[in-house]
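Researcher: Here's the sequence for the chain we discussed earlier.
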Amino acid sequence: MRKTLWACAILSLFFLVSCSKKSDTQNTPSPLTYTPPAVSSSFAKGADISWVTQMEASGYKFYDKNGQPQDLFALMKGLGFNAIRLRAWVNPSDGWCNTPDLVKKALRAQNAGMKVMIDFHYADSWADPGKQPKPVAWASLDFNTLVGTLHDYTVHVMDTLKTAGVIPAWVQVGNEVDDGMLWEDGRASTHMANFAALVNAGYQAVKSVSSTTQVIVHVSNGYDNTHFQWLFDGLKNNGAKWDIIGMSLYPSTSNYSTLDAECLSNINTLVSRYGTPVMICEVGMQASDSSDSRAFLTDIISKVNSVSGGNGLGVFYWEPEAYNWQNYGLGAFDSSGKPTIALDAFGGN
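Model: Thanks. This is the structure I predict for it:
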């Protein structure tokens, strides 16, 4: 009897433990899966990787998610990107991003099966909202000669690309031209008509080589409708032409939801006001906040794709491949040279 009771006790305990384990399993949520945002087939999922040749020359390598070394252009294609943006500098002191370097990268992008955007800074180095310096060789030119020189330089770069077999899908005439370009002659707040003339010179130059290439005027802070209307009203009133309005957007982990909503509102207003589509030419977030960055990218890609009439054309991440490079912290690769989960938002593997 004792043996029977003991056996029954053991069986009862086993049953209780088994039920407890089964109950625990049932109450444990399954791992969450991530689904990238669905976009139209024509939507540009892009990246500016202009640093790539300079990084490669410095010994940097790039790796897929499994840690296998891979050419960066092929890697980006596998991550879901279908477009590459490349900056053009007139006469950089170290040679990077000059015309020969630009053409090499453009060919690599095209050979990897991606469209190409050219970002003319019209400077020897960085041009952005805080600085729009003239190239050294253009510094003493009178304004009419400056306009002609910008036109001829743009034609030369476009012709060089075309000869190499590359026709850019998009071209930016200026980079983050919040207050114009080629200061002081082209500063928008004091010489809007001059700025419009420079934009038109670039526009006409691009179209003279490739009528299908779309011309972008690119401004930072895509959430700032007041500034966009001031600038584009000024350009419109002075006869400037453009095909696409370009934006930058660099939110933080704490404000991206607010800024994304304001950006979408701005896009819808601009599409209605000027009758031209909009593209986000630059985004970025701290590489160390990859989960928040993925959430941000998922949200902004979805919002831009939602613009009615297909007038939200795409989103480009700025230099995602940067890791341990020039102290730039807004890339999307980790310290071992592998992409973070942020780039899952672009829909690749």
